[in-house]
Amino acid sequence: MSPTHRNGTNQAAAVIMIVADVMAVILGLWILMYLLDANRANDLVGFIQDAARWLAGWSYDLFTFDDAWARVVAGYGLAAVVYLFVGHAVAGRLRRH
Questions:
Q1: What is the mean pLDDT of each run of 10 residues along the chain (97 residues)?
Q2: What is the DSSP string of 63-93?
Q3: Domain ranges (residues) in the chain
Q4: By C-alpha distance, which of 32, 38, 31, 88 is closest to 55?
Q5: Within 13 Å and on the Cβ side, how many CA atoms surround 30?
Q6: b (16+ CB within 10 A) / e for 42-79
Q7: What are residue 16's phi and psi, to 5 degrees?
Q8: The pTM is what?
């Protein structure tokens, strides 16, 4: 493998990891904001909530706990863990090749 190809692969792996990390941070921020009862009328809180709901669309309301806080932590937390795991696994595979 040429050094140029190797450098491009490492850069792609870094971008994938950063994107996965940013997605997980957004989801984690929303969990934190929800648990701390952040003001939903605030623009930043609304933006984080909308972004988190979009990112966790597949896991949003996946669990049916009686308490809303448990549904938020489980649903959004699962999405964050999956994004971290998959993003870092893909980046690791790219770096090995």
A1: 67 95 98 97 97 94 91 96 97 88
A2: S--SSHHHHHHHHHHHHHHHHHHHHHHHHHH
A3: 3-96
A4: 31
A5: 27
A6: eeebeebbebbeebbeebbeeeeeeeeeebbbbbbbbb
A7: -60, -45
A8: 0.88
